Amino acid sequence: MQHFSKPALSLSQQVAQLKARGLLIDDETAAEQFLRNVSYYRLAGYWWPLQADKVNHIFKLGSRFDTVVDIYNFDSSLRLLLFGAIERVEIGFRTRLIFELSLGYGAWWFEDANLFKDSRLFRENLQLIDNELARSKEVFIQEHKNKYANPARPPAWKTIETLSLGHLSKLYNNLNNLPEKKRIAQSLGIPKPHFLESWLQAVSLLRNLCAHHSRVWNKNLPKPPQLIPRLPEPWLTQFPTGANKVYAPLCCIKYMLNVVSPINDLTLRLNDLFQLYPNIDPQALGFVDGWANEPLWR
Length: 298
What we know:
12 helices; 2 strands; globular; Abi_system_AbiD/AbiF-like; Abi family protein
């Protein structure tokens, strides 16, 4: 194993290094300014596909810094678009989870170990809930603590509102085969709970990437959703060959969004984004040809 000894580079040295490796830079001052605000190795994920030699980091002939900037800006706009759509899906799912389980099993159903499959995961989820309640600054949580001495935790319609989509996904996935679990899935247009479990995991991962400003363009996602051949609401006629790109969970988001918020402009805004950045290849995101004409997206 080698000893790392590379020195830090100034902005001008960074630009010079990129040029020496074959990246075309028309305006060096503008490139330095961009690198002042977006670090060299944050951009590396965006210029990686432009390199012909990934060991020596030599760029393909004709590769341009402006192209890297366009890809970066496209990715930033896409994350904002995704985050807004996921928010509406998350709220719709959370509301259904609270409603169905609270009516079926009472205000503290999330404390009932008999409702859950894995006792270890049940305890872990309960600890996550306690952590969120302890750090929550929500007024309704603070008021509840000041007013009620017991039970120790607020009821589900307050407590579950503090949880992230990732926590909600873990809670739902660990539920036993309850009729309410099936009803939640079906209320989102998904026939069986295990499909919703898969979708929630994939969408939660994508949400975390967006929340932490991580790259989603050309990203290989570790947990692709399980896509279903037929669904009761408008769906897909052609499926992505690689479900590990962003298009697959994006289709799941769009499907659930059409249920919880039927009048949405996600297709329009996505189309506008591709038109704003015509050099972006949708296939790098897993999009199929003619995606906008799919029943799901019309």
